[in-house]
UniProtKB/TrEMBL annotation:
InterPro entries: Amidase/PGRP_sf, Amidase_domain, NAMLAA_amidase_2. Residues 21-149 form the N-acetylmuramoyl-L-alanine amidase domain. It comes from Enterococcus silesiacus. PANTHER family: N-ACETYLMURAMOYL-L-ALANINE AMIDASE AMID. This is N-acetylmuramoyl-L-alanine amidase. GO terms for biological process: cell wall organization; peptidoglycan catabolic process; peptidoglycan turnover. It is an enzyme of class 3 (hydrolase).
Length: 166
């Protein structure tokens, strides 16, 4: 089976960052994709994301860089490890920060590409996905994570509105 990725994305270390014998992605076990979970990378080094995942049991389907470039890390047909209980039915999108803590700002170019990517996902699946920040995904809360960070959290209504515009 061919991997399912957006035509807007370029594969980058695609499904190659796990250590032999561990799984940073796995089968969805027939679960339907209904949700997009938005994350921030908590780092400004866009190229360093897969390296971080070599050390942590985590992954995501996509990453968006500070200039709006989109990378595919895990095929959509697979469950990535990004949002606890929501992993089985969601697509995870990491967004690179342009500043460090405490603000963790994300560029407008990144947000523009995020909107385009979610629109593409909706079009390819023929429905509007639910869009949530990581802390609002099933099994998460603001007590367990501050992701998608102080820059993206207040922009979620704007992102959802832009995605749903025709």
């Amino acid at each position: 089976m061919e991997p399912v990725i957006s035509p807007l994305a370029t594969p980058y270390e695609f499904e190659s960052f796990a250590n032999p014998g561990d799984e940073r992605w796995s089968s969805r076990d027939g679960k339907e994709i209904t949700t997009v979970v938005i994350h921030h990378m908590a780092m400004t080094n866009y190229d360093g994301v897969p390296e971080v995942w070599r050390e942590r049991e985590a992954s995501a389907h996509y990453g968006i860089g500070p200039k709006g470039e989109i990378r595919a890390y895990v095929g959509e047909e697979k469950k990535a490890w990004h949002a606890r209980a929501a992993n089985g039915y969601s697509i995870g999108i990491e967004n690179c920060d342009i500043t460090k803590e405490p603000d963790w700002e994300v560029s407008d170019e990144t947000v523009d590409s995020l909107v385009k990517l979610i629109k593409d996902i909706n079009q390819r699946y023929g429905r509007k996905m639910e869009i949530v920040g990581h802390q609002c995904a099933e099994g998460n809360s603001s007590a367990t994570t501050q992701c998608p960070g102080p820059s993206l959290i207040p922009r979620l209504p704007e992102i959802i509105k832009r995605v749903n515009e025709e």
